[in-house]
Amino acid sequence: MMKLSPSRLAALVLAAWMPLQAHAGLLDDDEARKAILDLRAKVDAIARDLNARIETKSDKTAQLDMLNQHEQTMQEIARLRGQIEVLANQIARAQEGQKQLYADLDSRIKKLEPQQETVDGQVAQVMPAEKTTYENATALFQSGDYKGAAAALQEFVRRYPDSAYASNAQYWLGNAYYALGDYKKAIAAQEIVTSTYADSAKVPDAMLNIASSYALLKDSKNAKKALQQLVSKYPESSAAKTAKDRLASLK
Asked: CA 224, CA 75: separation in Å to the nearest integer?
């Protein structure tokens, strides 16, 4: 708010008082004091009117300025809100992308990490791809695709000779050859089970399969020998009980 300062008011008073001073000789003291008081009153009235006008004008200008600033501020707020919404959406998409990326990485890492599995009662570390390959191969056997199973199982034992599933894969390979009527290959495959994987739970069954293959090849001597070895080495196995029954029928 603009107002007349005391110095400016004093200047106005002085300007009005100087003519009076020039005629001081014509006025007595009472008349001079009265004239000065009147002049001061007029100056004060003029100053008040001027300040009132300035104040009124300033208020209106200030109001207009405030309205303009308010409008500009609201526009700026709207613009910033729009930017905030865009950024929020970008951040949300980025976070979702990161979650998906981490999920994909976690899935890939899990495929590369060995998993704990129980194979024939034994706990072992098995690679996910290894397990999947074995299950796919045995699924072919169970579906009756013995030729496909033989090829898949043979590939498995080639790729994973030290796998916890290797002895089982070798055993089912022998069974696949047996189902295909290739008894010589069946014997060769099962002999690998009994020698290379001698600690496998599948050895007694592999020996029984060898005996059966010899029998179908009309090789009674080797069939009987395989049965006798089975009963001697694994007398408590279910395969040994079957072997005993077959030996009894051969007498």
From this structure: 99
CB contact at 8 A, 186 and 194 = no
Q: Are 236 and 220 in contact (CB under 8 A)?
A: no
pLDDT at 119 (0 to 100): 87
Return the structure tokens found at 37.
């008081």
In one-letter notation, the amino acid at residue 117 is: E
**What DSSP designation does 199 have?**
T
Amino acid code (one letter) for 85:
E
| Helix or strand holding residue 62 (H, E) | helix 29-112
| Band of pLDDT at residue 94, cut at 50, 70 and 90 | confident
CA–CA separation, 144 and 230 (whole Å): 28
Tell me which residue of 146, 157, 135 sits closest to 180, measured CA to CA.
146
Residue whose C-alpha is closest to residue 109's, from 99, 121, 101, 118: 101
The beta strands (E) that lie in the chain are given as 115-119, 122-126
Token pair 């704990």: residue: 116
Cβ-contact 174, 212 below 8 angstroms = no
Question: What proportion of the chain, given as a percentage, has pLDDT over 90?
Answer: 48
Residue 205 tokens, joined: 């069954």
Gap between the Cα atoms of 154 and 174, Å rounded: 10
The predicted structure's pLDDT at residue 26 = 45
Pairwise CA distance, residues 217 & 229, whole Å: 19
Q: Do you know the residue count of the chain? A: 251
